[in-house]
Design goal:
By secondary structure, this protein is α/β, with parallel strands linked by helices. It contains 9 helices and 10 strands. It folds into 2 domains: about 10-120, Cobalt-precorrin-4 Transmethylase, domain 1; about 125-239, 2-Layer Sandwich (Methyltransferase, Cobalt-precorrin-4 Transmethylase, Domain 2), CATH 3.30.950.10. Strand 6 (about 140-145), helix 7 (about 150-170) and strand 7 (about 170-175) form a beta-alpha-beta unit.
């Protein structure tokens, strides 16, 4: 008896700049995406926009979309795997950049491994890696913290702790923030980090307004503060 075919889970990158109309996919990957009918996405509106930019041979309204975000339960995600278990391939898309990196899609990838479903990542941009590349900080040893605590007191404790960790292990420390809190984070960093600590601000990655600058804290205090408000930003520090 022939074993039942199981589909593949493709991790499909999209442009970091959500207004970008061009694809970031390799041609061989674009052809694979053209053949997909099922997608699990962080944001259906942006997913439709980026897939539309590929000029697919089939209408977007004929595709099947499921949304994965922080509210989805294990039961929801298990249900999303159903087409894979029936032999259909699925594409997983983040709202920006590479799926499953600082992204709820990682839950689906983890579950796919448990079900022995093949996971295939496609080449594409990650704001975290691009920022590290451009920072001039240690690219051999680094740690990504995701989001820092939202409460100011807890956030400052975390900032001091990761600066100490960076100094001790010579590691680059990387974190991101909700865009509307960027300025608060920057002010805390300038106010609490040691003058010799290096800080990189990587703003609006891959867009026309991209801004990447690394200085020690003493020099940041002399620099005109960049406009961080409501813009996607990656912070990197090295003590």
């Amino acid at each position: 008896m022939t074993a039942k075919k199981i589909g593949h889970l493709y991790l499909i990158p999209v442009p970091i700049d959500q207004n970008a109309k061009e694809s970031v996919l390799l041609e061989c990957h674009r052809k694979i995406v053209e053949g997909l009918d099922y997608f699990v996405v962080e944001n259906e509106k942006t997913a439709r926009f980026h897939l539309g930019a590929l000029n697919l041979h089939k209408p977007i309204n004929q595709l099947h979309f499921e949304v994965i975000d922080q509210t989805k339960t294990q039961e929801d995600i298990t249900r999303y795997l159903t087409p894979l278990l029936e032999g259909f391939d699925i594409g997983l898309l983040s709202e920006s950049g590479c799926p499953a990196v600082a992204d709820p899609g990682s839950k689906m990838v983890a579950l796919a491994h448990q079900k022995n479903i093949r996971v295939i990542p496609m080449t594409g941009p990650s704001s975290i890696i691009l920022a590290l590349m451009a920072s001039g900080l240690n690219g051999q040893q680094f740690k990504f913290h995701g989001y820092l605590p939202s409460e100011k007191e807890d956030r400052i404790k975390k900032i001091i702790a990761i600066e100490n960790e960076s100094s001790k292990h010579h590691e680059t420390q990387i974190f991101i923030e909700t865009p509307y809190r960027n300025q608060h984070i920057f002010n805390d960093l300038i106010g609490k980090l040691q003058d010799k600590t290096k800080l990189c601000i990587a703003l609006d990655m891959s867009s026309e307004s991209e801004f990447i600058l690394t200085k020690n804290i003493a020099n940041w205090k002399k620099e005109t503060t960049p406009d961080l408000k409501n813009k996607p930003c990656v912070f990197l520090l090295q003590g």
